[in-house]
Amino acid sequence: MSAINLSAAGDLFDEILDLSFNGISADISNFEKKMSGCVRNSLQVLNLANNNLGGGVPDWIGELKNLKSLNLEFNLLSGLIPPSLGTLSSLSFLYLSNNMLQGPIPESFGQLSELIVLDVGFNQLSGIVSDVSSNSLVLLISRRTCSMGRSHRAFRG
User: Fold this and answer.
1) Which CATH superfamily groups domain 6-156?
2) Whole-prediction pTM value?
């Protein structure tokens, strides 16, 4: 990964950090060291889509308390989705599709009352997406949907 000094970016990145389509090849955990406390406390949009980021979805993303949109789709992310993402009470848009994620959707996702879009398609995920308070949730998964009930959404795909 080439040197990216996010702490020197100033007000431009205080709310939005969009590094999508940059061909960044690195472990996603490296980004934690690059973000200043100010950026971490005010960041509302984090878009790292369409790169070559590897490793697991890091727990520290759950510390971005003002995050409204997280886009990590079309990378090389693997492993489990950390339950800490379910603590992002302002999160409205979560895009994790087209990675190599596996295992269950964290139960903590049921706490995401502001969630409008959850895109987890084209991974190896399974389980139940707990009810969330949002009546306008759009759940996007792969075409291998097993069932989608009213009280919960079960799937494998």
Assistant:
1) Ribonuclease Inhibitor (3.80.10.10)
2) 0.81
